[in-house]
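If your schedule permits, I should be very grateful for your opinion on a structural question. Please examine both parts with care and let me know of anything in them that strikes you as inconsistent. The record follows directly beneath this note:
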Amino acid sequence: MILGFFIVATLFPREVSSGQDDDVENNLRIPQVNHVQIIVTEDGSSLVGRITWIGKDEIQFETDLGVVTIPIAKIEGIQEVPKSSIKRGEYWFPDPNSTRLFFAPTGRNLKKGGGYFCSYYLFFPGVAYGITDNFSIGGGVSLFPGVDLSEQLFYFTPKFGLKVSSSFNFSAGALLVRAPDGDESQLAGILYGMGTVGPADGSLTIGLGYGFVGSDFADRPVIVVGGNRRLSKEIAILSENWIIPDMDTPVVSLGLRFFGKSLSGDFALINTLKDPIFPGVPYTNFVYNF
């Protein structure tokens, strides 16, 4: 199923812009020094470079091959992106799921108005939405076949994020789970803090969290260490590792993320360092950003 969603993302990616005249006017400007622009013309051609002059009916656009003059009426869309996202003359869109590793959150937060639909192991769907650039909320419910809704797991995930610097992001939040317990529901979960250092295409995330059941909190925290490294335009390698109290060995994972402009799918193998199971426990999820 993840593969199917990834194919859809590749074949039907989001366009650079909607093609409306007001969008072109809003983005018709000389960019900042550390940014470049992608111009899509009405015939479907795409140019990467910078606007250097804006006239009444046309612009001059500087590319690696020289300066070209483009009639404004022929421009379908303009997108301004950081120079660092251009690799060998091609635009590398950002990882649409950069706010999470496989399961654990990173220090990054959703932007205001941004959100995603996710599904872990197919049985744990959920949604998340950015209320502001610094605060997001999410939640979901398990969908185990043959289990009444009253016996399913419900979860809620508030998250506060702060961009401390250009290379460091911090977040704090909670995973709150309502777990059925006979005729009653039990609230459990984890309160966490996470820090992510490095650019989106290659970063390290370290954090810790305290688990709880009802009003009883763990004496020691869970420690999470993970990271990602982008291998190509549409593939990244990820690792997420847990040091859990009362376990005599860390839980480790390694896998790949396949992604388009708005969809991503993860596949990983989970294991323990002591007495590992070959090749590991498979893990899958997919995320659709909107």
Summary: The mean pLDDT is 89. Residues 11-91 form a domain with the SH3 type barrels. fold (CATH 2.30.30.100).
